[in-house]
Amino acid sequence: MAGRPDIPKHARPYRGFTRRLWAMIMKEFIQLRRDRLTLAMIVIIPFMELMLFGYAINMNPKHLPIAILSADNSDITRDFVASLKQTGYFDIRQEARTEKQADALIRSGRVLFVLQIPPGFGRDIRRGARPQILLVTDATDPVATGGAIAAVNGLAGRLFLRQLRGPHADLAGRPPPFELVVQKRYNPAAITAINIVPGLIGVILTMTMLIFTSLAVTRELERGTMESLLATPLRPSEIMLGKIAPYVLVGFVQMAIIMAAGRFLFGVPLTGSAGLLLTLTMIFIAANLSLGYTISTIARNQLQAVQMSFFFFLPSILMSGFMFPFQGMPAWARFIGEMLPLTHYLRIVRGIMLKGAEWPDLVQEGFALVAFMITVMVIAVLRFRQTLD
Amino acid sequence: MAQGAEEYVIDVEGLEKSFGSHKVVRGVTLRVKRGEIYGFLGPNGSGKTTTIRMLCGLLTPDGGTGHCLGYDIVRESRLIKLNVGYMTQHFSLYADLTVEENLEFVARVYGMPAPRELARRTVRRMGLAGREDQLAGELSGGWKQRLALSACILHEPKLLLLDEPTAGVDPKARREFWDSIHELAAEGITVLVSTHYMDEAERCHELAYIFNGRILARGPAKDIITTQHLKAWAVRGAPPVLADIAGRAREMPGVEIVTFLGDHLHICGPEGGALETTMRDLCSTESVRCEPAAATLEDSFIHLMNSGGGDGRAS
Ligand SMILES: Nc1ncnc2c1ncn2[C@@H]1O[C@H](COP(=O)(O)OP(=O)(O)O)[C@@H](O)[C@H]1O
Ligand SMILES: [Mg+2]
Q1: What is the SS3 assignment for A148?
Q2: Which domains does chain A have, with CATH numbers?
Q3: Domains of chain B, CATH where assigned
Q4: Is B275 helix (H, G, I), strand (E, B) or coil?
Q5: Looking only at Cα atoms, what is the longest distance across chain B?
Q6: Residue B97 Cα to ligand 2 middle (Å)
Q7: What is the pTM of this model?
Q8: Which residue puts its alpha carbon closest to atom 2 of ligand 1?
């Protein structure tokens, strides 16, 4: 049609994605720089939480996942395993066939214990040769495993009272007929801070990322700036990425603070690959930012946005395995927990920092985070209203 | 239609918009010619902002069709955005960014080459020099308007939509603002400006008067006045006497509008004969002087409002 203005080359609508995105990012950075309160919070929150959660909560969780690596198939062994179940402390999730398999299970966090029963265990007991059995525990969370180890020890007496009636009754009443060797992996000194510090990275990232981005859109709406933003050629995806990107950096700053403080105050190591940790953390940060952004497209004002963030933040703290051992929670709580990005990130960050876990151990968790992130991002872009209707 | 398409920068027909059950815009038709300064008048809540938002794609009309700059207002709103400068009714730039940062942001978002340089040039061109490092939130009303106007002309739009740009701004700043609008129009930019100041209406080439979501009149100000065929009188005298006359006049035949205007009373009505009889009656005392006067634009608008727009009757 005549009369339509020629579109200048630089202003063509499908060009200039990066330019517009960059404009958005720079604007957000300038605003962040001027916002002293937010800047202070970014730095202070990690320190505060680190101190608060340094004192962990004591618990005696049951139904912890265990893998049995048995080289013996006698009735005594079978009975031993059955009574192990009856203590209520263990859920036998896996039968491992090789030591390598068993190692992988514990490293990925799918089980907290591996019980190794040596060949000829039943025979040795009958002979009174006091065979050794090995209980490998994931000691990163000493609170979770302490009670369970005590239960295995207590088992010895009761189990063999029943088993050894009859021809071997003379063995009863003597010292326990086998020797339990407990091998604590990853955190031999049972320091709670070692478990808390990596967890805190996840918790603090969840909190700050959620709250800051959940304010992103509502702030523009409340201040009236959204109207002129929408009147520009910016697209919803550009606005979203522009608002999210600066906080990825903020997230890494916070992570650095916690890791440094954890190392110098509590001696928490970084056992595994820093590159893997950074990559997966990036995904975790992006997942939380997208969620915050989604909240901000739903909330009507900033107060609502903060409330909705907390509505998500609380179950994250309680059901992810940060506050209470994940494996000790009832099934429904674990189900909810699996939906939360923090749950998966905790396994990642504890795995990498404390156990030296590698990518193959964490594939599942990594993909869970990616799936979560993509889902919320799509919702956010769909929810974002490009008009004021 | 196709013939005239080139002539009209804004060409919309029968626009409608409701919020819930509240009909805010009821069939608005507007045609704005290239290079024109088009005044969009109407009292608060009459639907000016809603109409303007539909013109630039910020609201989707419930009914009606139209083009802005030749682009369809529903399907091609993105192209409209690239070529339109929209100044919102309330200040909508970033209070925590400086003048120059705000302008640079806008320049980048529109993909302008050399955005920083452009922002600086615009600062000088629009008389903002010396304030480029001040936070936008700390500017006074008049400077805020000036900055907002700068932000909408930065990307060299063909059409400006200004929504009550001078509300709450002092008279000097208002005058300067209007000078800028005329300069821009002289450069060939078409301007649609909403306002409820009558003196500003007279600075526009053409007007449309909207009330309750309907356009009640359109055309150059003097045409709107003459087509209403209103008669008016000026009554001069001592203030207490004028107050007394004003009270009585409102009840008398032929009188529709009574306004105090500085030193005199302005009385206006549509029927010349009845009004003249009434005026003779009112002016029979010696303490006042009555003489015929010209009906004003405001008279016309009030008359239009009284005689049509309020309820469901057609405009
Ligand atoms: N987003 C909205 N939601 C609901 N009502 C609205 C909305 N925007 C405007 N209105 C209503 O529509 C009417 C017209 O508003 P508006 O177009 O802003 O008028 P004006 O700009 O002429 O003052 C007002 O009664 C206002 O309350
Ligand atoms: Mg308005």
Answers
A1: helix
A2: 64-185 (3.40.1710.10), 192-388 (no CATH)
A3: 8-219 (3.40.50.300), 229-294 (3.30.70.920)
A4: helix
A5: 73
A6: 25
A7: 0.77
A8: B19
Residue B159: per-residue pLDDT? 96
Ligand 1 and B43: CB distance under 6 A: no
- C-alpha B265/C-alpha B259 separation (Å) is 6
Residue ranges with strand state E in chain A: 64-70, 90-95, 113-117, 132-138, 179-185
Q: Write the CB contacts of B250 (distance below 8 Å, at least 6 apart in sequence).
A: B258
Q: What is the mean pLDDT of residues B51-64?
A: 94
- The ligand minimizing its distance to the Cα of A385 is 1
The sign of the torsion formed by the CA atoms of A74, A80, A85, A86 equals positive
Q: Please write the tens of the pLDDT for every residue from B186-208.
A: 999 999 999 988 888 889 999 99
Contact between A66 and A111 (Cβ < 8 Å): yes
Q: Is B94 touching ligand 1 by the criterion CB < 6 Å?
A: no
Distance (Å, whole) CA A165 – CA A145: 32
Contact between A13 and B82 using a beta-carbon 8 Å cutoff: yes
Q: Which residue has better confidence, B97 or A161?
A: B97
**Closest chain A residue to the Cα of B9, Cα to Cα:** A3
Q: B167 and chain A: CB distance < 8 Å anywhere?
A: no
Mean pLDDT in order along chain A per 10 residues (389 residues):
54 72 94 88 81 56 81 82 80 81 84 86 81 82 73 67 54 63 68 76 91 87 90 88 91 90 83 93 93 89 90 90 81 92 94 90 94 91 77
